[in-house]
Write a structure and sequence with these properties.
This protein is of the alpha/beta class. The protein folds into two domains: 165 residues, D-Maltodextrin-Binding Protein, domain 2; 99 residues, Periplasmic binding protein-like II (D-Maltodextrin-Binding Protein, domain 2). The chain has eleven helices and eleven strands. The strands form two sheets. It has a six-stranded mixed beta sheet, with helices on both faces. A five-stranded mixed beta sheet has the order 7-6-8-5-9, sandwiched between helices. Helix 2 links the parallel strand 1 and strand 2. The N and C termini lie far apart (58 Å).
Length: 325
Amino acid sequence: MKFAKTLACLAISALAGLSGLAQAQWKPTKTVDVIVHNAPGGGNDLLARAIAQMLEKEKLLPVRMQVINKPGGNGAVAAAAIADKKGDPHTLGFITSVWIANPLTTSEAKVTLHDLTPVANLLREPALFAVRADSPFKTLKDFISAAKAKPGELRQSGGSVTSRDNIIRQTLQSATGTKWAFVSFQGGGERLAALLGGHVDMMVIEPQEAGEQIRAGKLRVLAQIADTPLAAYPNVPTLKQAGYDVKATPQIRAVMAPPGFPKEAQVYYEDLFARLRLTASWKKYVEGYQLEDSYSNGPELGKTIAEIETDMRVQFQQAGIKLVR
């Protein structure tokens, strides 16, 4: 009996080992489609295209990765497109925190991140308050003072009303008793063009979108949404250092997959992105664009999403934004 039990245990172990080996050996066999909610030029679009190039350069992916732009509905169109690919191991989505925010406030957003499969958290992205280089505003305090003196006259370009751009605007307005207008644009390129063209006075922009314009002397940075000053802007204060100790919604850059995603595919992609972050290409990218590497696997990403959603509910309620979920 003892010998038989030993043989049974060995058989079970062997089967488990074969199962694990089968999972580890799974690889994509055709082009991997990465769906983003931006039009070309937006932050998520730029990140997705950079990652596709890095994976090719580092020879980490045996097939091509192509970016599919699905703008519209503040992430709702892209989320629905991913959900329609149920069980497809060759479809991924690159998401930001707006994918968490939008379903909370928009009943038309039928798909939430809870309906999709978390794969990996990649980054936390700081942001910058930027104005044109010839703007009269030298500091964030200058802008706030002008907004207080002329309620509603100053304008900020941004994304949706549930984007980090608008959430931090609402939070600052509440904390300072000021008002300024929010002009919504679909794409990051349009938001930046509005600022450079003098059609708005300020914008909240990600470092990777702003870097070239800042280096060219076309933009001035007033403050940073970051815990500590970024290396590229050591003399620019954070919100807290500028005198505004308010909570800012973190902007995550993460990878989701369709519902019913095969476990072996999830294991593969978790490992793929874990290996990418160890490469010289990734480290150079993160440093060059002043990003925060915050890799975690699928289950941990799920917890992060839940935490951000809880914080957003509080912030939306404080800003008087109606919740639908």
